[in-house]
Amino acid sequence: MSKDALLVIDVQPGNIGTCYQPDAVVGVIAGLLEKARAADVPVIYVQDDDVGPEGSSEWQIDARVAPRAGEPVVRKKACDAFYGTKLHEVLQEKGVGRLGVVGARTEYCIDSACRRAT
């Protein structure tokens, strides 16, 4: 039986800052994370390495929705979260068959990940 998972894509200050109402976006994502964790739904993060220099404030995952211990973070260098990453392997290891997808840059990275996931 396949499991559900929540995929959190590019919620980094360098991306969120360009969103419409960024605090509201992060608040919605925080609420979804709370519900997923309470229901023991795996949470998997994708972090865009091209947002800013590694370790910079733009590059870090937003502290309000940061990963908890044991939640995988898949780093990427392209819009497609599957291209050249271990995302597919992480999903297979966890037995994930369905994804809820949230994050920043809907028109680029989320769109690409959703299309590729199918």
Number of helices: 4
User: What spatial order of strands do you see in the largest sheet?
Assistant: 3-2-1-4
Topology as H/E string? Answer: EHHEEHEH
Q: What separation lies between the terminal Cα atoms?
A: 18 Å
Features:
globular; 118 residues; 4 helices; alpha/beta
Q: How is this structure best described in words?
A:
It is built from four helices and four strands; from the N terminus they run βααββαβα. It has helices at residues 13-16, 22-38, 87-93, 106-117, and strands spanning 3-9, 43-48, 73-76, 96-103. It has a four-stranded parallel beta sheet, sandwiched between helices. It starts with a strand and ends with a helix.
List the topology elements:
Elements: E1 3-9, H1 13-16, H2 22-38, E2 43-48, E3 73-76, H3 87-93, E4 96-103, H4 106-117
Parallel strand pairs: 1-2, 1-4, 2-3
Brief digest:
This protein is an alpha/beta fold and 118 residues long. Strands 3-2-1-4 form a four-stranded parallel β-sheet, sandwiched between helices.
